[in-house]
């Protein structure tokens, strides 16, 4: 009888111990990093006749307003690209334009949940050119409100004819 009581006490204790050993330690887990913390990036805008802007910009994802496209989020959550807000190339362009007093405009495409940059400093892409977005020398595979920037990235908007 005594052996049966000991087994009844030991087995549940062992199972509970194993369960707690495999459980994640949440009491001491680090909080998730702020993904939309402001970062500094280098931004270059290259027009058909030369550089229109170059400089370091502090940016984070935020709502963007253009004359043609209206006001929309531009924080990496566009199109479900990221689960939380992050800095983006188009947000960086918008911050540069506001801080350095130049204009840009873009059309909003609901089907892409993103802007198409049409004009920067009165230079339009038009029917034969467009504004290509690249980060660290590589064209972005998604829109400028969907691509996540990291501190120190080299962002370029380049007038590209076709």
TrEMBL record:
Residues annotated as signal peptide: 1-29
Keyword Kinase in record: no
Gene3D superfamilies, A to Z: 2.170.130.30
InterPro entries membership: Transcobalamin-like_C (IPR027954)
Keyword Signal: yes
Start and end residues of each Transcobalamin-like C-terminal domain: 117-160
Record keywords: Signal
Coiled-coil intervals: none
Entry protein name: DUF4430 domain-containing protein
